[in-house]
């Protein structure tokens, strides 16, 4: 008997990967892990008011197909599309709770 994720009320693996990736970005951004922000991302600096939140990040254009699927390349677009109240969470628990209210599939750019 095959039991599907929907019958067990589980999220798909791809969706759970997005959640885990964004939690790791939060941890890197807030120095909760022993990884340097500069090794993965660059802070987005704007001289004018934009619709983006204050913790937007950038990275370079991928140079190879393999680099396109790297952690930093796949997480930047999702992180930058998260609402301000999610990325500005004061703790990892609050971040996770607020992130649960966002449909991460809507944050992933279509290619």
Description:
This protein is mostly helical and 111 residues long. The chain has helices spanning 13-29, 65-68, 71-81, 84-87, 92-99; strands at residues 42-43, 57-58. It has a two-stranded antiparallel sheet with strand order 1-2. The longest helix has 17 residues, at 13-29. It is globular.
Shape: globular
What's the count of strands?
A: 2
Intertermini distance: 36 Å
* Poorly predicted residue ranges: none
Query: Which percent range fits the helix content?
Result: 25-40%
Features:
single chain, 111 residues, mainly alpha, two-stranded antiparallel sheet, 5 helices, 2 strands, globular
Give the structure's gist in a few sentences.
It contains 5 helices and 2 strands, in the order H-E-E-H-H-H-H. The chain is mainly alpha-helical and 111 residues long. The model has no long low-confidence stretch (mean pLDDT 83).
Write the layout of secondary structure elements.
Layout: H1 13-29, E1 42-43, E2 57-58, H2 65-68, H3 71-81, H4 84-87, H5 92-99
Antiparallel strand pairs: 1-2
Helix pairs in contact: 1-3, 1-5
């Amino acid at each position: 008997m095959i039991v599907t994720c929907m019958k067990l009320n589980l999220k798909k693996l791809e969706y759970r990967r997005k959640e885990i990736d964004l939690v790791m970005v939060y941890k890197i951004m807030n120095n909760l892990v022993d990884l340097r922000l500069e090794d993965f991302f660059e802070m987005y600096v704007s001289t004018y008011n934009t619709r983006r939140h204050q913790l937007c990040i950038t990275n370079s254009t991928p140079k190879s197909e393999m680099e396109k699927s790297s952690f930093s390349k796949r997480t930047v677009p999702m992180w930058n599309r998260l609402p301000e109240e999610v990325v500005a969470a004061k703790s990892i628990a609050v971040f996770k709770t607020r992130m649960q209210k966002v449909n991460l599939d809507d944050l992933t750019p279509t290619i």
